[in-house]
Design brief:
The chain has 418 residues and is α+β, with helices and mostly antiparallel strands. The chain contains 15 helices and twelve strands.
Length: 418
């Protein structure tokens, strides 16, 4: 049996944890630079507030309904996510954290231990609510795809009350018949459009197709999906958590950048984010891409991209920041008002099969990188930085409606007056 535990409107729910005054109010969370709505709590959803709408277009409607608006508080979300995952881990010894608010569980040889999956799911929900105040949905299925479908039912279909179980043909049919084909895990937008053209509109209709035929007509992924919907497990943990082939960190600036030092600080910060993610999946960077651009709406649009190849693949933040500095002069042009920049690891190698060079010294320094990651993990991201990142945050993204960082900043710790 597999399970997927997924938070309900995670960003919006996280905003309510330490602020009881907004728990019964509609809440939305904005994307980077307060651009669009990226999270809508259930109360706001009932008002018809759509996701991914530019904030300026819907501002009047939000004010009319008294909707609470928050900027993305990534520091708070990361901390609450870790707390939630730690609670979930107590309920199964085989856990895979799929995203910031989703965790898969694989219950191998648990049939003699767990007699009632519904009850077990509610135990998980109650524990997470008690210890984090985050609402979650729990879906159980005989495959990971069915667990994902069950989670969809637990959160969005009437009558399931936060927990759904697919453990036989009838329970699968009850849920899959009510599930649109584009909500099936592994079915992308383009494939769903082609399926609908063939009158395959629900997940149940997809499950009734011949897997081999679907594989020939679409892809091996679609073939696996059909098999999984029929209870045939095709996805292993390695398939689900395969290392990323590219890792990027990009962002628009809170205000335009016109000097080279600010651009270097921004690019270096992005490079350290990429380096951290590369280390987390035990990879090494062979080729690094950096870019910077003005706004595409500017009269004289400017964009420059550079690629650096490392002699020896690396995950060292210092080496990567040095590469950024070497390419900076080719990127920066005086007089350009830079609007956006980013860094990407575009060719990655496995750390397990790292090849050294007899004639070049190894500068990977894993002890230093482990120390850097450990300090920032314990005391908050940005506690320890590279000198090239600078101290000024004038280029950082705009977060006008940012809530306090209750769990990672001493100044923001909640105060209780007795």
């Amino acid at each position: 049996m597999y399970a997927l535990v997924d938070a309900v409107s995670f960003y919006a729910s996280a905003e309510k944890v330490f602020d009881p005054s907004i728990r019964n109010k509609p809440v939305v969370v904005l994307t980077n630079n307060d651009g669009c709505i990226c999270a809508v709590c259930p109360i706001a959803r009932r008002l018809g507030i759509p996701k991914f709408t530019p904030y300026f277009q819907i501002k009047a409607l939000l004010q009319k309904h008294g909707v609470v608006v928050r900027s993305s508080n990534y520091e708070l979300y990361a901390d609450l996510s870790e707390r939630m995952m730690n609670v979930i881990a107590r309920y199964c010894d085989n856990q895979y954290v799929y995203s910031i608010d989703e965790s898969f569980l694989h219950f191998k040889n648990y049939s003699n231990v767990i007699k009632d999956w519904h009850q077990y799911g509610h135990e998980i929900r109650r524990a997470i609510w008690k210890e984090t105040r985050l609402p979650v949905g729990v879906g159980f299925g005989t495959t990971s795809t069915l667990a994902k479908a069950a989670n969809h039912a637990a959160k969005k279909l009437a009558g399931y009350k936060g927990v759904a179980v697919i453990n036989d043909t009838q329970s699968a049919k009850n849920i899959l018949e009510k599930m649109h084909v584009n909500d099936v895990w592994g079915v992308g937008k383009k494939i769903s459009q082609r399926l609908i053209q063939q009158n395959i509109k629900t997940a149940h209709q997809l499950s009734m197709q011949c897997p081999k035929f679907m594989g020939k007509q679409f892809s091996v992924i679609t073939e696996r999906t059909v098999n999984e919907l029929n209870g045939v497990s095709c996805l292993t943990w390695d398939d689900i958590k395969a290392p990323k082939q590219e890792i990027f960190s990009t962002r628009s600036f809170g205000r335009r950048i016109i000097d080279i030092h600010s651009l270097q600080a921004a690019l270096t910060t992005h490079s350290t984010i990429v380096a951290k993610k590369v280390r987390q999946q035990s990879s090494l960077i062979k080729k690094l891409l950096i870019f910077a651009s003005s706004s595409p709406h500017d009269e004289n649009y400017y964009k420059q991209t550079m690629v650096y190849t490392f002699p020896i693949a690396t995950d060292n933040s210092c080496d990567i920041a040095t590469a950024v500095s070497l390419m900076l002069a080719e990127i920066f042009i005086s007089g350009v008002q830079f609007y956006r920049c980013g860094v990407g690891a575009i060719v990655l190698e496995s750390k397990q099969y790292r090849q050294a060079d007899l004639f070049l010294s190894d500068s990977s320094n894993p002890i230093l990188m482990n120390c850097l990651d450990a300090i920032n993990h314990r005391y908050g991201q940005g506690t320890l930085t590279l000198g090239a990142e600078g101290k000024s945050n004038s280029w950082q993204m705009k977060r006008q409606f940012l809530s306090p960082q209750y769990t990672s900043n001493w100044r923001d710790i909640p105060k209780i007056n007795c």
